[in-house]
Design goal:
Elements (H helix, E strand, L loop, with lengths): L1 E2 L5 H9 L5 E10 L14 H4 L2 E2 L20 E5 L4 E6 L2 E4 L4 E3 L20 E5 L5 H10 L11 H7 L4 E2 L2 H12 L8 H13 L16 H17 L4 H20 L4 H14 L6 H22 L3 H16 L3
Parallel strand pairs: 2-7, 2-8
Antiparallel strand pairs: 1-8, 2-4, 3-9, 5-6
């Protein structure tokens, strides 16, 4: 991904998503780069230097109807995995209720998997779909990575071999980033993770913390539990990590009791239940009982909205929970 203004990619993504509280991910348009007139592969130079000609910005399928039309209207998504229900393909995710993907202007997409008109002022992906004709021939022989059928052929090369515009923006961006980039300091990574856990969980250790504190924080506490579980595998003495893992589950229970949960929050928790119920903490049994109480309410909502697939899944989970003894 290439932020045009030269900033760090993570900062650009965070800035865009901060403008839309219901944004679960950022859809990034790409630029289709062609062969730059090269028939033979020249591996003595890198891809960025070799291919500097691309399609015009508006090249693409504005209606998003042709699944194999790899124009610039197509997007790739960087998303919060805890807000994704499932992936349809690499370009399209189905999100939990009230969440959606946005373009670089923080606007929800009108067509799944496509953003039209193409927007590439803040961030863009350079898609070197053809490279040289020799490299594309090898691509045809290799076939698709995610499909049994192979849709690559010489016709798709001719279609995607776009060279109308000169664009060396990624080389300029690389030069700008080289002046300011500092590799991450990993020497105290575990310490910083423990600091983050303490910051997020310390209010839950107090008896006078108001219920309002827990409202809307299910995702935060699920993330805390995931961090603590990671630290358990990294440290010789896992006791502190186990303490924070148990504290995270207690915080989830408090969040359930607060009543300040969205439909998506509940579904996030239910997705994690198989892992949570396998843990050896006494609070796990309380969490199981709390979920048994809330599942019928969620099933009723699904019933009223004819969400029968989700209803059936929850019915199955409910029956499994009733057999759990902890």
């Amino acid at each position: 991904a290439l932020p045009i203004w030269g900033g760090a990619i993570v900062d650009v993504v965070d800035e865009i998503l901060s403008h839309n509280p219901n944004a679960a991910g950022l859809a990034i348009n790409w630029h289709i780069f062609g062969s730059s007139g090269q028939d033979k592969a020249d591996y003595s130079r890198g891809v960025l230097e070799r291919f500097t000609r691309r399609a015009q910005n508006d090249f693409g399928d504005p209606q998003g109807k042709n699944v194999w039309y790899t124009g610039n209207t197509y997007v790739k998504i960087t998303a919060n995995p805890r807000r994704i229900n499932f992936f349809g393909n690499a370009h399209f995710a189905n999100y939990f209720e009230n969440f959606h993907v946005v373009n670089e202007n923080a606007e929800p997409l009108k067509i799944s998997g496509h953003n039209c008109p193409v927007t590439t002022e803040k961030i863009v992906i350079h898609h070197y779909v053809t490279k040289s004709r020799e490299e594309y021939t090898k691509k045809v022989q290799r076939g698709n990575a995610d499909h049994f059928d192979n849709h690559y052929n010489i016709k798709t090369f001719d279609h995607d071999n776009r060279n109308e515009e000169f664009d060396d923006g990624i080389l300029k961006y690389r030069a700008m980033r080289a002046k300011t980039y500092q590799p991450p300091d990993k020497s105290r990574a575990d310490e910083r993770l423990f600091t983050a856990l303490m910051t997020n969980l310390s209010p839950t250790f107090l008896t006078n913390t108001p219920p309002q504190f827990y409202a809307g924080k299910m995702e935060t506490f699920l993330t805390c539990r995931a961090v603590a579980a990671y630290l358990k595998t990294k440290l010789k003495d896992a006791t502190p990590a186990k303490f924070f893992e148990e504290a995270s589950i207690k915080a989830m229970l408090q969040t359930l009791a607060s009543g300040g949960m969205s439909f998506a929050d509940v579904r996030l928790l239910l997705r994690e239940l198989p892992d949570l119920l396998s843990l050896p903490y006494p609070v796990v049994k309380d969490l199981r009982n709390a979920c048994l109480n809330i599942i019928p309410q969620i099933m009723n909502v699904m019933h009223l909205n004819n969400l029968w697939k989700d209803y059936a899944e929850l019915d199955y989970l409910q029956r499994l929970l009733k057999t759990f003894r902890g």
